[in-house]
Amino acid sequence: MSDDCLFCKIANKKIPSEFLYEDDTIVAFRDINPAAPVHLLIVPKQHIRSINDLTVDDQAIVSRLIMVAKQMARQQGIDKSGYKLLFNVEKGGGQVIFHLHLHLIGGWKR
Ligand code: 5GP
Ligand code: ZN
């Protein structure tokens, strides 16, 4: 855990938040500034800065992020209508919180 990292604090319950999902390694919660009717963030409890910092040892956590996103899409009722999964990578890629997270975005009427 990194002391100056917002998502470390949320994922490790230093800041109270409502989790829609939690297991030993991952939490999911709603984005504070949703870009769509459903906008969740799937976040590892372990501090990893970005996709650029992944090592071979992190492969299991990345596949878990995607599996949890799939499960949350179904739980939110957007699996059939469809959704986007997004990793922003570093400043130029739009990343503003430098703790790895997967965006689950969907729920549009179209
Ligand atoms: P990034 O651009 O780094 O991929 O995405 C960071 C996301 O975190 C943004 O969509 C932003 O709205 C969200 N966010 C920033 N601060 C907070 C917070 O304190 N709580 C929650 N739930 N989401 C946050
Ligand atoms: Zn962190």
From TrEMBL:
InterPro entries: Histidine_triad_CS, Histidine_triad_HIT, HIT-like, HIT-like_sf. A motif (Histidine triad motif) lies at residues 99-103. Coiled coil: none annotated. This is Hit. It comes from Desulforapulum autotrophicum (strain ATCC 43914 / DSM 3382 / VKM B-1955 / HRM2). The gene is hit. GO terms for molecular function: catalytic activity. The active site is at 101 (tele-amp-histidine intermediate). Signal peptide: none annotated. CDD domains: PKCI_related. Residues 6-110 form the HIT domain. Gene3D superfamilies: HIT-like (3.30.428.10).
